[in-house]
Backbone:
C-alpha cells in the first residue's frame, strides 16, 4: 500500500541546511495498523507530511497503492489526497460554524457528490461512530472525544485507502483516548490501513507495529502483540 525507498528531506534555515529525513526505507502493507514514534525533531511529522502529500521529498521514491507520488501540482495532489487519504488531527480541525453532519460531509463535497447523497453518507458514518443524535450540533457543543469521533467519521466518509492520524489522542484524557483507539482498532479490523503518529507508548501498544524514528532514520521497526483498547478501561 505504501512503498518508500531512500527518502531524504532537508530544509534550509538561513545559511544552514537541516537534513531531517536521511534515506528512509519504509513499507506498509494493506490492512496494517502502524504507529510512528520518535522525540521532537526525529522526523515523524515530516514523514507524515510527505505521506499526506503536503510536502515532497528531495530524493527517493514514494508510491501509494501503486501510484508514484512525485512532482504533483497542487490540483493533482489535492485530488490524490481526496481519493487515497483520510486525515485525523490532534486538534480535530473541524469547521466551527458547520454542524457535525456538514463537517463529515465536507470531503464528499470536494468529490462532487450531490448534497442529498453526501448527507446520507455522512449520517451513516456518524452512526458508525455513535453520534447520530449529535448530527446537528456545532463543534463547540461537543466534548473532545465527540469532536475526534466526528473527525474520524469525516476521514472515513470519502472511503480512503489509508488513514493518517497525527497524535489523535493527544488532546484527550486517558478514558476518552481508549474509546477513540477502540474505534480506530475496529476500523482497522475491517481492513483499513492506518498510520498513527504518537509519542504515547500505551497508544503505540494498541497498534500492531511500532516504527521508531531518531534523527531522521528508522532505529526500530517491530511487530507487537496488540493491546485491545477497551482492556485498558
Residues:
Amino acid at each position: 500500500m505504501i512503498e518508500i525507498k531512500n527518502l531524504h528531506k532537508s530544509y534550509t534555515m538561513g545559511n544552514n541546511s537541516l537534513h531531517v529525513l536521511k534515506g528512509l526505507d519504509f513499507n506498509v502493507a494493506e490492512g496494517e495498523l502502524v504507529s510512528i514514534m520518535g522525540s521532537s525533531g526525529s522526523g515523524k511529522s515530516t514523514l507524515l507530511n510527505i505521506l499526506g502529500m503536503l510536502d515532497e521529498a528531495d530524493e527517493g521514491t514514494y508510491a501509494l497503492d501503486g501510484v508514484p507520488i512525485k512532482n504533483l501540482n497542487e490540483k493533482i495532489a489535492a485530488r490524490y489526497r481526496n481519493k487515497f487519504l483520510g486525515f485525523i488531527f490532534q486538534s480535530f480541525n473541524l469547521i466551527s460554524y458547520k454542524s457535525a453532519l456538514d463537517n463529515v460531509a465536507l470531503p464528499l463535497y470536494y468529490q462532487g457528490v450531490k448534497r442529498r447523497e453526501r448527507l446520507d453518507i455522512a449520517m451513516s458514518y456518524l452512526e458508525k461512530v455513535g453520534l447520530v443524535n449529535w448530527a446537528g450540533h456545532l463543534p463547540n457543543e461537543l466534548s473532545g472525544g465527540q469532536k475526534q469521533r466526528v473527525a474520524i467519521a469525516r476521514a472515513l466518509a470519502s472511503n480512503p485507502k489509508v488513514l493518517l492520524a497525527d497524535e489523535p489522542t493527544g488532546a484527550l484524557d486517558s478514558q476518552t483516548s481508549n474509546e477513540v483507539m477502540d474505534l480506530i482498532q475496529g476500523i482497522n479490523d475491517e481492513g483499513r490501513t492506518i498510520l498513527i503518529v504518537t509519542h504515547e507508548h500505551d497508544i503505540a501498544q494498541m497498534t500492531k507495529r511500532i516504527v521508531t524514528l531518531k534523527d531522521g532514520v528508522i532505529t526500530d521497526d517491530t511487530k507487537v502483540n496488540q493491546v485491545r483498547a477497551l482492556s485498558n478501561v
User: Anything to note?
Assistant: The radius of gyration is 18 Å. The longest helix spans residues 174-189.
